[in-house]
Amino acid sequence: MLRGDLEGDDLEQYVQERIITTTLDKATGWARGNSLFPATFGLACCAIEMMSVVGARLDIARFGMEAFRASPRQADLLILSGRVSIKMAPIIRRIYDQMLDPKYAIAMGACSSSMGVFNNYAIVPADKFMPVDVHVPGCPPRPEALMHGILKLRSMVQHDPAMGWRERYGAQRTVEVLPEDHDRPGQEGAVNVFGTGQRRA
Asked: Is residue 200 within 8 Å of 175, Cβ to Cβ?
């Protein structure tokens, strides 16, 4: 039977099997999440791990992100792979400002996330001078960890972020709400600050 001869339930089933309906926001998020263009940018030893994600073992090309761009004007993802010195921070910020909108940033490794083992006056965490979307821990993190961070970022870009620990455990900013405190008289709203046992009403 030719497709032009379908009628009734057969035509309805044929259409339902071949047409996908969505919203413009979801389609745009899907396109952005599957076509990220990382900048060719490395700071220290983490850059070696970042380079390996384009190899055959991990093959980031499966997700449409293998096109590392040498110019910030052609990139929309900045991976801070290594330690950031105070002298380097304004240069990185300038590169970030020159990138395409919408743009994203990943702090790869302990150094760019929290200064790591270089906890001195010369190193600055990335959060101090630019917005960071995803932190990848490790010193250095394995390529699989960076791949996991990139996929988390892709989920965020596609407007489908996974529930983080703050939502899972009922944390508010940097404090954690203790469920048992709500049952005690006079202890409504008490929280445990950083797990130190100190309480704040």
From this structure: yes
Q: Which residues share a beta bridge with 80? A: 107
Query: Pick from 121, 118, 119, 115: which is nearest to 135 by CA?
Result: 115
To 5 degrees, how large is the angle CA 186–CA 192–CA 196?
130
Confidence of residue 177 (pLDDT cuts 50, 70, 90): low
Question: What's the half-sphere exposure (Cβ side, CA atoms, 13 Å) at 67?
Answer: 10
Tell me the pTM: 0.68
The 10s digit of each residue's pLDDT in 5-38 is: 777 787 888 878 777 777 888 888 888 888 888 8
Q: Which of 86, 79, 141, 78 is nearest to 109 (CA)?
A: 141
DSSP code, position 197:
S
Question: Looking at residues 149-165, what average pLDDT do you find?
Answer: 76
CB 107 within 8 A of CB 135: yes
CA 186 – CA 108 distance, rounded (Å): 44
Q: Looking at the DSSP assignment, which residues form a beta bridge with residue 104?
A: 77
CA distance 30 to 137: 26
